[in-house]
Amino acid sequence: MLASPLPCPRSSTAELHTRAVERVIAAMHRRLDESFSLEEMAEVAIMSPFHFNRIFRRLTGVPPCQFFSALRLETAKRLLLTTTLSVTDICFQVGYNSLGTFTRRFTQLVGLSPQGLRALARGGFENLLVQLLSASTWFGDPQLSGPVVEGEIEAPEDFSGLLFVGLFDSPLPQGHPIACAWLEGSGRYQIPDVTGEGHCLVAAGLELSSTDPRHFLLHDNVLRGGLREQMVEAGERIGKIFLRSAQATDPPILLTFPLLASEALAHEWGGPLALSQGGLPRGGGWLAGGGAP
Q1: 3-state SS class at 40
Q2: Strand, helix or coil for residue 206
Q3: How many whole angstroms separate alpha carbon 266 and alpha carbon 106?
């Protein structure tokens, strides 16, 4: 009897690296209220700190300590939306020693304060993304000028909802995007790039099958995609992005999609919702730019 073929060394090594990183991410979930240094993470991965840091960044797109910090805030979002715990209690449960520091960091990266997130969930925005869906069916903007990032995004055939594609300073989808666009279903997009610098492109698919606000705020079932290992330049044409289910190694999504949609609709532009940062009188919003024909 012939012996079974040995696994490809390269494939086997990649699998071991993935399992090591997933093991560390699972440990992060258990230690959100503790300090967790790079050296301790490397021990869990059974690697040297230097090697672990390099492997973790290659698989997730971000450094391990930054991933851990984002995971803390993602957990804070979940506790705010699924429990009656006070903001102070949640602050300590996710490893912050200062309520002021926690609130500032949360507001900066999520897009609104902890109390504001709870208020948004209670505010009844069931029709918000449906309105955005209606607005996003209008494509093309003859006024669009300057460098753009363009490409095509494809969701699974059974997907029904909105697709988001945005440019960020890092692979972590947090805070406000540099620029972004919405579209209904698979198709082409254009994003104005007001800076002309390299940015990370992140794509997400939001199902519209639920009226529970937490469905849109916790992003449990959001499809993921993007170019974690590539910086996108203005004027660049991107290859097709295929959306997939979330993986353990995907960085947490901290931005608040309903808030982004609300600010887009508040602009009341008659054209496509392709947006770039800046320009709103109250600050921190988006300025309409253009869409894809």
Answers
A1: helix
A2: strand
A3: 23
Query: Which of the listed ranges 98-112, 125-139, 271-285 does the model predict with the highest average pLDDT?
Result: 98-112
Domain ranges of the chain: 13-122, 128-288
Average pLDDT, the chain: 79
Query: From the centroid of its chain, how far is CA 291?
Result: 21
Q: How far is CA 45 from CA 9, 21, 27, in A?
A: 19, 7, 10
Closest by CA to 26, choosing from 64, 57, 61, 53, is 64
Percent of the chain at pLDDT above 70?
74
Tell which residue, 115, 78, 41, 89, has the closest CA to residue 253.
Answer: 78
Residues contacting residue 7 through CB under 8 Å, at least 6 positions apart = none
User: Per-residue pLDDT tens for 22-57?
Assistant: 999 999 999 999 999 999 999 999 999 999 999 999
Residue 226, sorted as left (phi over 0), alpha (psi -120 to 50) or beta, turns out to be left
Confidence tier at 218 by pLDDT (50, 70, 90):
confident
The pair of three-digit structure tokens given for residue 280, joined into one six-digit string:
């709103």
Tokens of 9: 């060394």
Residue 89 tokens read as 């209690």
**Distances from the Cα of 34 to the Cα of 65, 74, 224, angstroms:** 13, 16, 29
Model's pTM, two decimal places?
0.81
Q: What is the distance between the alpha carbons of residues 134 and 140, in angstroms, rounded to a whole number?
A: 15
Q: What are 94's two structure tokens?
A: 């996710």
**b/e string for 64-76 if b means 16 or more Cβ within 10 A?**
bebbbbbbbbbbb
Which residue carries 């979330």 as its tokens? 246
Amino acid code (one letter) for 280: L
Output the CATH code of domain 13-122. Answer: 1.10.10.60
